[in-house]
Amino acid sequence: MDQLSSSLAPPRTSHKSPAATTPLEGAGSVTKRLGNELMTLMMSSSAGISAFPKSDANLFEWVGTIEGVSGTVYSGLTFKISITFPPNYPYVPPTIKFDTPCYHPNVDLAGNICLDILQDKWSAVYSVHTVLLSLQSLLGEPNNASPLNTDAANLWDSPSEFKTELRKHYRASTENSN
Amino acid sequence: MDTAALLKSVSDPSDFPDEKSAPGLRSLDHALRCNICGEFFDGPVTLPCGHGFCSLCIREHMRQESNCPMCRVAAPESSLRKNIAMEEAIAAWTSARPLVLRLVSDEKKSITEREANPSTTPSNAVNGKKRKWSSEGTFTTQEAGPSKVQKEKPAGDSRKNSGQSPKSPIRVDERDDEVEMVNTSDIEEADAVDPVVNCPMCAKSVLESRINPHIDSGCKIFLASKGQNVNNWLKIFPGRAKGKEKQTDDTSNDVEPDRLPKASYGVLKEKKLREMLQEHKLPTTGDKATLIARHQRWIMIYNANLDRAAKQRKTNNELRADLARWEETRSFKKDQVSDGVAYQEAHKNEFNQMIKDARKRLVKKETPEKSRSTTTHAAPSTSGPSNVVAGGDDDNVADSQDES
Ligand SMILES: [Zn+2]
Ligand SMILES: [Zn+2]
Ligand SMILES: [Zn+2]
């Protein structure tokens, strides 16, 4: 082992040599792309968003968190989300759902999200990072023209009432520790 | 593969310090990468809008939409053009990258040392360390003078924790624990009795006697070192290096190979599909959907390979190994299996056959002459986007071996 590193290490030291990678990697490998995304997320300093694989057993299931931006009704709240990658990711968008109930015009009670870049406006160059940032800004700037939750959409213009409803949903989830 | 291993395998612009401490390096590393896969462009192609991607990445995208994923301007697959200059830039950058990372790390370290210990002559500290780095490639503390031993130890630790390239040096150390490598010189001696073959699953070099346990391990253990790849593949595909001699494999001829036409699968019977796969020496197992997916992917991999410069191109066997990995990833997801074992089991016979074929070729071919300049990039790598990186690596290794 020592001998090997002495003869080979200089060229190998500074980048990740493919020799150490697993057979899952390949041209256009989903796994590889997910690795790149994870690295970007970990190295980026975007406040209030994070995501990581749920377990080592399945790298296609991630959990993430989104914190509400201060100055919005969601300020101070943290939402858990689940991210599921299809086998042909990134050519097909990931499935993203709120695990923490999120009272929001574009989120239904089951946590499904209506966001164009997660549907027909998806592009293979988008990433978890860009999606989480979009979701974070969607919280404060809903698209009330096409609501999934019409009650929330109708209540949006009355911030204090909206906040009460939002807290009610949010608290219910944290108390019932699911 | 677990998350830690995954992260270790990732090469990323953030390997370099931020713009402030090393202007341009991080953005250079970023500019040479495909926005679909995040790796250095592999067979870079340009669209009419000017955006570029790996050939395979954009072809896969264009199965669904004929446009640019960046700007959505319409672009049919026929409008793709190779970007030769980009490919050359990447080949150069990937071979320079390790050195640049090392220099950056040295620079950072000498600054830290100077700050921590102004009495140490800076140049000495740097040179002493450089010698260490180039001889062993890993940072150790022994060679420095006695007075410095105490000082360098914490510095070595801090490199891991706060160094500007936190991932790369650490990964090597950790990886060495996990992957059993075979010493290069051992292989060289053992070569005649125990030749190195390339695993049909992962395309890496493995001693022939170890190929089965290697595959059983999920391609994790019994890897022969990479420097060996060059010579080994020369034995299997001796003509490839020159691009002139007769080939055992049908990829490389003097004539630029034609692209494969797409098939319309709707009307095809399973029997015909199997024949089409057989024609390209591909496995014929699975249901109709699997056969179609395999054939479709093969066409794409094959055509994308032609967007690589001739010397960068993979052999058909390497492409087949890529295809096998691709299928493994798909089945991994489909069956919710935590690794590729099931897939490997299912296809073991076919892969064993491929190994046997490789051995036959190995026996038939005499050891070919080494041809460094033309072979370095013919060395197999794991696959895909990392191909270029591996080429650069093998380059270095081959050079040092030949010169010593
Ligand atoms: Zn790509
Ligand atoms: Zn474009
Ligand atoms: Zn030209």
UniProtKB/TrEMBL annotation, chain A:
Keyword flag Cytoplasm: no
Origin: domain of life: Eukaryota
GO molecular function annotations of the record: ATP binding; transferase activity
Assigned keywords, A-Z: ATP-binding, Nucleotide-binding, Transferase, Ubl conjugation pathway
Region feature (Disordered): 1-27
Family named by the database record: Belongs to the ubiquitin-conjugating enzyme family.
Gene3D superfamilies: Ubiquitin Conjugating Enzyme
Location of the UBC core domain: 29-175
InterPro entries: Ub_conjugating_enzyme, UBC, UBQ-conjugating_AS, UBQ-conjugating_enzyme/RWD
CDD domains: UBCc_UBE2C
Coiled coil: none
Signal sequence, renumbered to the chain: none
Biological source species: Rickenella mellea
SMART domains: UBCc
One Pfam family named in its UniProt record: UQ_con
Protein name: Ubiquitin-conjugating enzyme E2
Active site: 114
Automatic annotation (TrEMBL), chain B:
Keyword annotations from UniProtKB, A to Z: Coiled coil, DNA damage, DNA repair, DNA-binding, Metal-binding, Nucleus, Transferase, Ubl conjugation pathway, Zinc, Zinc-finger
Domain RING-type: 34-72
Location of region: Disordered: 1-22, 111-177, 353-404
Protein name stated in the entry: Postreplication repair E3 ubiquitin-protein ligase RAD18
Acidic residues biased stretches: 392-404
Catalytic activity: S-ubiquitinyl-[E2 ubiquitin-conjugating enzyme]-L-cysteine + [acceptor protein]-L-lysine = [E2 ubiquitin-conjugating enzyme]-L-cysteine + N(6)-ubiquitinyl-[acceptor protein]-L-lysine
Biased composition (Basic and acidic residues): 149-160
Matching Pfam families: SAP, zf-C3HC4
Matching SMART domains: RING, SAP, Ubox, ZnF_Rad18
EC number: 2.3.2.27
InterPro entries associated with the record: Rad18, Rad18_fungi, Rad18_UBZ4, SAP_dom, SAP_dom_sf, Ubox_domain, Znf_C3HC4_RING-type, Znf_RING
MF terms (GO), sorted A to Z: single-stranded DNA binding; ubiquitin protein ligase activity; zinc ion binding
GO CC annotation: nucleus; Rad6-Rad18 complex
Domain SAP stretches: 265-299
Record family assignment: Belongs to the RAD18 family.
Places the protein is found: Nucleus
Biological pathway: Protein modification; protein ubiquitination
One Gene Ontology term from the biological process aspect of the record: protein monoubiquitination
Coiled-coil residue windows: 309-336
